[in-house]
Amino acid sequence: MSPDELLTTTRSVRKRLDLTRPVPAELVRECLEVALQAPSGSNRQGWHWVVVSDPELRKAIGGYYRRSFGAYRASGGSAGSLFEDDPARAATQRRVSESAGYLSERMGDVPVLVLGCIQTPGGLPEGNQAGLWGSLLPAAWSYMLAARARGLGTAWTSLHLAYESEIAELLGIPADVRQGVLIPTAYYTGETFRPAHRQPLDEVLHLDRW
């Protein structure tokens, strides 16, 4: 797989996650070894990774995620509520919302759940937090790319953060470590993935000035 193919076909996999096929722990470790090569502010490398494969823990996390998704869907700001005045985009948004709902009901059944976390000595900084999360999120994306290259499907999710403290207690995560992303990880069904339709570059590109 070429770099461009890898980057353009690493999709959010929800309905096509294989919930019945175990994922070897060593394969997840390989992906995390790749993730550790990502950049971090001041080379601090303050990230931590909680890999959850225990069925009861996955079930508990899945329960929190399902509750959070229910509130999100009822909020009026969910994916399915966006771009309703644009028929083409509205249809896509409805499909995204349907697949997200499917995953919310099955998050606890996904073979491996990976939580990307970061140390926050002294708590979250006031104001702009781009530097903090910019020291975790590239590594999480690298994990997802490495998983794709090894035949695994993933999805970027964060709705579990509505219950971050409950999940931290469940998993024994220290108070000075904050969660940033929950990545369900499994083999996927079907053959491969295609690039997604996106807005034309010229609609979002600004040269020198806005």
From TrEMBL:
<dbReference type="InterPro" id="IPR000415">
    <property type="entry name" value="Nitroreductase-like"/>
</dbReference>
<dbReference type="InterPro" id="IPR029479">
    <property type="entry name" value="Nitroreductase"/>
</dbReference>
<keyword id="KW-0560">Oxidoreductase</keyword>
<dbReference type="Pfam" id="PF00881">
    <property type="entry name" value="Nitroreductase"/>
</dbReference>
<comment type="similarity">
    <text>Belongs to the nitroreductase family.</text>
</comment>
<feature type="domain" description="Nitroreductase">
    <location>
        <begin position="9"/>
        <end position="176"/>
    </location>
</feature>
<dbReference type="GO" id="GO:0016491">
    <property type="term" value="F:oxidoreductase activity"/>
</dbReference>
<protein>
    <submittedName>
        <fullName>Nitroreductase family protein</fullName>
    </submittedName>
</protein>
